[in-house]
Amino acid sequence: MASIRSTISAKQTRMVIAKKITINKRFDGMPKPSDFKTIEEELPPLKTNEFLAEAVFLSVDPYMRAYAHNIPLGATMVGTQVAKIIESRNEKYPVGKHVVGKFDWRSHTISSGLPSHVQGAGNAPAPYLVPDLVAVSGAAGAVGSIVGQIAKIGGCKVVGITGSERKGRFLVDQMGFDGFVNYKTDDIAQKLDQLVPEGIDCYFDNVAGEISSAVIRHMREYGRISVCGSISSYNYDVSDPPRVSVVQHHMVRKQLTMKGFQNYLYQDRASEAFQKTLNWLQKGKMKYCETITEGFDNMVQAFIEMLQGKNLGKAIVKV
Predict the structure, then answer these.
(1) How confident is the model at residue 6 (pLDDT cuts 50, 70, 90)?
(2) Fewest Cβ atoms nearer than 10 Å: which of 158, 182, 245, 274?
(3) Quick one: pLDDT at residue 122?
(4) Residue 225 Rama label (left phi>0; alpha psi -120 to 50; beta)
(5) Smallest Cα–Cα separation from 90: which of 48, 35, 132, 27?
(6) Which long-range contacts (CB under 8 A, 24 or more apart) does 276-281 make?
(7) What are 186-232's pLDDT values in tens digits?
């Protein structure tokens, strides 16, 4: 946690020495600790309509690896966090409330509360306040396990694809999935024939590559594909992406629909999502699992271990 020093003026109640983690070298395959650099900086006094947020939880996500090649060397690594507002000159963001924002890998952030441009990652929505219970709960689980549980609540048969027996048993025994495919040991096509001989109606794609090509071949007519990520390609050189089997034939023959999915496009429904998720959690209809790493200075370690698949559920750094 960055240090907060004594008052220096009437306009600035705190002098904050914040930490940020920047990209020091271009990644070559799996990121290494030496690819990053931690820098301390003194934050300026707040201006009108600004607020100061102190990181509480930093989200650790695969997409960060995909965006890294577009981020200039020396710039702060991209990311989202849950932060607590500790000083404010913006009445929309009162002190003591929790906020979710694209504040990157920083211990403290000054924000105007407006949408912003994130280096290497495009436009980011305005930070938004979250209900206190949600902030305390740690914001539920990882994308795949949550998607599967929502599908089960909706009455679907759900099959997960994962990289170990341990994670597969977790999905079935703890999260209520109907089955799983271990892509490292199973013949994916044969296992899908066994688990879903009737075919697949909906596919939520986090990985891309040959895994997704195999799933698409097993889809039924008029099936729908929501593309949320392409983890299988993230550690490849962006100038030489992996080659995969062609899927257009199956897209045409089965009249499939594929659409990209980014949650910020549905920002106006964030409150609805929080309330529904909280209701399901309280009623025991949904569970979550987190891998929590303690300490801002361990953010790089948590990021690398997440890319290595060592986390179970949502990977989070608790500051």
Answers:
(1) very low
(2) 245
(3) 64
(4) beta
(5) 48
(6) 277/134, 277/140, 277/146, 278/131, 278/133, 278/134, 278/137, 280/149, 280/153, 281/137, 281/140
(7) 999 999 999 999 999 999 998 889 999 999 999 999 999 999 888 88
Q: Which of 56, 61, 53 is nearest to 79 (CA)?
A: 61
CB neighbour list of residue 128: distance below 8 Å, 6 or more residues apart: 99, 100, 101, 267, 270
Q: What is the β-pairing status of strands 219-227 and 200-205?
A: parallel
Distance in angstroms (rounded) separating the CA atoms of residues 291 and 101? 21
Tokens of 296: 């801002």
One-letter amino acid for residue 133 of the chain: L
Cα–Cα distances in angstroms (integers) from residue 234 to residues 37, 68, 90, 209, 241, in the given order: 21, 10, 38, 11, 9
Give the amino acid at 23.
Answer: I
- What is the per-residue pLDDT across 167-179, written as a single tens digit (0 to 9) for each? 899 999 999 999 9
pLDDT band at 265 (very low <50, low <70, confident <90, very high): confident
CA-atom Rg of the chain in angstroms = 21
Q: Which strand ranges, in their side-by-side order, compose the sheet holding 36-42?
A: 3-5, 15-23, 36-42
* pLDDT of res. 275: 87
Quickly tell me which residue has 């436009």 as its tokens: 123
Cα(87)–Cα(185) distance, rounded to whole angstroms? 52
> Could you tell me if residue 120 is left (phi over 0), alpha (psi between -120 and 50 degrees) or otherwise beta?
left
Tell which residue, 129, 139, 125, has the closest CA to residue 61.
139
